[in-house]
Model the fold of this input.
Amino acid sequence: MINRIIYITIFLLISVNQNILSQSNSARLFPQEKINEALNKFVNSAQWSKQNKQSSQSPTGFVSSPSSVLFKKVFDNNEQALMAADTIIVGAQVNDTLVITGNFTHTGPILVFNSGVLIFNQATVIDTGEIYVLGNGKLFADSTTFTFPQQYIYERSLIVAQNGFVQVKNSSFNYSGMSHNLYLADSAKVELTNIHQNDFTTCGLYGNANININGCNITGEYILTDQCQATFKNADTLILWHHFPDAAVVNYSFPPGDTVYNYICNNNTPGINGIGYQVSADSCHNVMWALMPVNGSDVTISNSNLRLIGCWFERGDLATVSGIFNNSNYSNYTAPLSDRNLHLINTDVQTWSFYVFDSSQVDIDSCQLGEVGTQQSALVQANNLLLDGSGGYFWATDSSGILALGTTIYTMARSEKKGIFILAYGWQPFMAPTALSNSLMVCVQSTLGQDPVPYDGAVAWMQKISSPDTAIINTVVPINGSAWIDQGPSGGGMDFDKYSLYWSASTSNWIPIVTNVITEVHNNGLLGSWNTNGFTAGNYFLRLMIKNNLGDSLEAIKPVYLKQLVSVNELSSIQSLIIYPNPAHDKISIEMSDIPESSEYNVEVLSATGSEVYTSTFANSTNHFNLDVSNLQQGLYYVLIKTNNGFLKKSKFVILK
Done:
């Protein structure tokens, strides 16, 4: 069962610009107990010993609201931008019309509403902003090139709502090589003919919206809901998301292959009951099938090849999900979802994704998924999740929250609007976690390819002890890592206050190393120096506590193994090795003699303070080998050779840069 108290603490944590960050008991604001659970699993699974050391090792995004609510959310969240001085407004007067030809560059949103008409004819448009067509507004474009610069995926959108109408012919769209959004709500209508797209489109269709596409190279994905109508002809690279609401009863097989002629799906299609939309596709290539079953639905899919299944959790749903994996073939499978019936017979599924809405709360454990997203005030806790990005990215928007523990993310992790994303003891090797709008991205003791980045008025929180993994007793051990809280360019309500660093042999009695340091530490800098004089070899823990300017605090804990090898002072009594060149720059050669017969030997490189900087095991088949030391900083180092029968050799060398 989901821990509701933990979820409530995430939900209450932040709405940065409106300063609703609580200044009460800081220990309750962050789900520290849940974060520590991930640490405990990590520690308990480690094979610690005196010899073995601990080591660490095309996107979608949409709004799932009813049409009128969708428009209100989109408008409300962009109201400040729409009121800016750089907003182009067409429709302030009756029959207001703006015609644009030739080169046109604009920074800011464009709003077409009431009875306004905006016409692009043989234009070259560069617009750093979004376009809204509302009311009875109309937008026409012919033989026009559109470029929408954006810093991140889905920054730019074309939003058509109410009775808005858009007609674009013989034109091209470029969104800086990144995915973008197209929203249609209410009775909006969009006609696209002979379109060339540089990037992937994600389109949500709500209410009675209508879209007609005839000729497009990268058509994108289309979420079919409500009473919408969608027609596709001569379209390539098309994903059709079939939304199955809670009352739907489906027993259906999708067409084989990826080329489609005369495909029609509506509530009159045999095996389909409970949907209001209708979709048709003719002469379309590279078509991919996808379904979005909602909790309460009854869906059986047979003899199909599904690109995606995106499960929706709505209306305060409570669910626990485990054991679902991408790239699976199901001969006769019922998904482990107690809130619906999802039955797959002789069906392949490339990607599973979860979308959690309203106030729903979902626990995800031990799954491989393509995308996970939360909206409204929904909450997700993910444990031991592999998010491979085959369906999109990992996102929390609106006022929702995500707590990801021990999670591996091969795509993007992102917080949006007033969402909160906490990534603890996880791994995201390829992309920087990002925070947009007024959201919060917190990274605790996670291995990241790049530091988190805050945009707009968002906040990024980085907290990690990077090293050491192992160290030598009776030395002063440098502790490196990061401790900072940064705001986006528009500022935010949260900022860094101070950090403290502690050690313990049991995680119950913490002894200070440094306390109340008011200077942030970036880029795996020095957090503090740990004097291990008089310690015994064994397992220890380091604890990094950060406090923000509002009194909230969060801790990160790292296990460390302290060992007793040969102290620096004792090295002179051990037989020598030959190392050259010495001083060295990027590599050294090591020659040995008189090594006793042994199956293998261990090579360790220690810094002048005794900290281990390199270790490896070699077969005892040569008395000469090379080491790459290009990543070592300038200074004095020691090499130790230890055979499996305990025999030791040593020498020292100097790195000069």
Summary: Residues 591 and 624 are 5 Å apart (CA to CA).
